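Good morning N.,

You mentioned wanting to compare the apo and holo forms, so I went ahead and generated the holo version with IPE. This is what I fed in:
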Amino acid sequence: MGIFSTNKETVDISGIKLPEHVGIIMDGNGRWAKKRGLPRTAGHKQGAETFRKIARYCSDIGIKHLTMYAFSTENWTRPVQEVETLMRYFKDYLEEALRDFADDTIALRFLGDISRFSPELQELMIKNETLSASHEGMILNLAMNYGGRDELVHAFKEMAKKIQSGELAPNDINEKLVSDYLYTKGQPDPDLIIRPSGEHRTSNFLLWQSAYSEYYIDDVLWPDYTPDHLNRALIEYSKRSRRFGGV
Ligand code: IPE
Ligand code: IPE
Ligand code: MG
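and this is what came out, ligand included:
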């Protein structure tokens, strides 16, 4: 257990088979705040703390790839003040990660079209990605301005450009090649996708990559999510029979 671990876990996961890649749709911040009579932004503040704790916990227990859905291509439609507050929390986290990167083993990556963020945020993202690239612990993918459909459109455009320039032939296109044009290039597909807050939908998360992912829905709202909630999902995952269309 790392020094940041809460060490309060009561659900024992020792000896179970862990997923290599876990995806989490961090949902329920707004409802968490509403239940307390607080503004939605208070939920995002608490949600950001939960994100730090769960990312650290995943790294501590040996998860190799963690993808956290932080901001979707559709989330820009929210009120300006809410979006601005989220951007501030992203900035706080990225500055903190940069400050601490030398002591860390986590490699940060960003999934999504980051050109839509402010120049300041983009710079923080690129610096974090570059400086942590050699870290050999967990790869932490932050899906920001991410949409599964947008990712595929981006991939199709890139492939079309290569076809136009003669570098690629239509017959070269296969599933492996498409995967190589996605933001997750080189990483395994998610084995387990967790959605807290009780919603049973993907909301545009890793559409291509989740073809055979195991889903786990939890009713707890993201700000209240703890390592034990994750442990329960991991135990259930370890008992599932994955057949990938076979028998
Ligand atoms: C997730 O919580 C955070 C983001 C989508 C950025 P929500 O803000 O969606 O919270 P609910 O779903 O409204 O409760
Ligand atoms: C999905 O949650 C996006 C993130 C968690 C970043 P949303 O709250 O945006 O999804 P919907 O609107 O409930 O489908
Ligand atoms: Mg939501």
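The CA atoms of residues 190 and 210 lie 6 Å apart.

Happy to go through it together on a call whenever suits you.

Best,
F.
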